[in-house]
Each structure stands twice: as C-alpha cells, then as structure tokens.
Amino acid sequence: MLTVFSSKLWAAAAALPVLLLGTAMAQAAPWTAAGSTGVADEEDLQLVSANEGRIEVAGSVAGPATLNLRYNIVALDELVNLDNTSYTRLTARFRDNGNNARVELRLKSYNLATGVTSTLANFDSNAHPANSNYQQQGLCIPPATLDFSQNVYFIDALLTKSSSSGTPSLGAIKFGLESGCVQEG
C-alpha cells in the first residue's frame, strides 16, 4: 500500500534520470587531445620525444627541424550543434622558449566529395610572449557551422626547432564553444 510520502518518493525517483540527462546535455564537452596522441609523419619519427602526454622535438635534434603531427577531431555534440552565431576557441598548452622554437596549430577541413583541404584557423605561438615554461593560450574563431557529414576536421600541428637552444613542445589541445569568446585582433 502506497502512502502519500512513498508516492512522492517514487515520483521524485522517476524524475531523477530526466533531470540528470538534461544536466548532461547542457554540459557538452569540448574536443581535447594530449599532445602525445598526434600522428607523426613517418619521416618525422626520429624527431619525436613524448613524455607524460606532451610531445616535443627531441633534445638530441640540433635543428633546424620541424615535427609535423595531425590530430583527428571527432564529431562531438558541442561541435555538431554549432550555429552561425557561436564562436569557438582553439586552445593550446605549449612551450615556446623564444626565437628558436615555434608551435603552430592549423584547424583544417577535408571535403569528402571534392578532396579539397581548407585551413579554417591558425594558432601561432609566436603571437604570444616566449616562455621556457608551459603556457596556455587560445584563439577565438568566428562563427561557422561544422558539417561532419561532408567534411573531416583535423588539427595540423607544426613544432619547429630552429637551433639546439629551441625547445618547442605541445602539451594539449582543446577545441570547442567558449562563452564570451570574441575574435581577437
């Protein structure tokens, strides 16, 4: 026999999954990748040094050398449901210790029908102060709709070491919506 209290308890318990699902949907997560998960060009494998999720040009490489990596961007809800008013942000945790190091990230699309690759945004560590420690910086990207049914999206990363004193490194990449993000510059 159900009492008024137990009826209310059952009603609350039945509503809980709906509330949790709504919360989960409201908290869509951005696409992220550890630096060490990038796929290196075969000819660049001798340049790679990976440690604790980070990737860098190996210390044994005197330079000049450029390590090229690619990161596939998967179709997450946050990216699939973009509209023409939503700014996104490409964020990197990187190390660029000065004139002999550089980290570049290029957001690209590859059209499945035409085979055309287009660059949608460029992040360049040289646009930020040099630092021998890791720093996090980002780039706001103007509103655009990503069409995962027609395109493949990826990050093309270039870590350039101009001489033995350069220590370019990439710790992580994040791409997604960011409230309050406005185009810089």
TrEMBL record:
Keywords: Signal. Residues 1-28 form the signal peptide. It comes from the Bacteria. This is Secreted protein.
